[in-house]
Write a structure and sequence with these properties.
The protein is an alpha+beta fold. The chain has one domain. Helix 1 crosses helix 3.
Length: 86
Amino acid sequence: MLSNHRGDAAALDVERWAKQLAGKLDEAIKVDVSYESDSNTFIVRLAKNARVLLFRFSEGQVHEEGREAECERTLHRKIKDLWNLI
């Protein structure tokens, strides 16, 4: 479970978590997370220089027990995708 909060409060928890992991791989990556209530998803924005990559985590990924490893793998994959953007 990445957060036991809901909505925007959970987005802050997810952002802290993502910044910590991203910082271990590349300190130049900027991370922003927002909650979109229409789709009940967390929008993650990764940026490095002029490159920007957006993706989403579902509420289930953020709030269900045992899905942290899945989220971590997704974040790592998306950071690698950001590095490879042309």
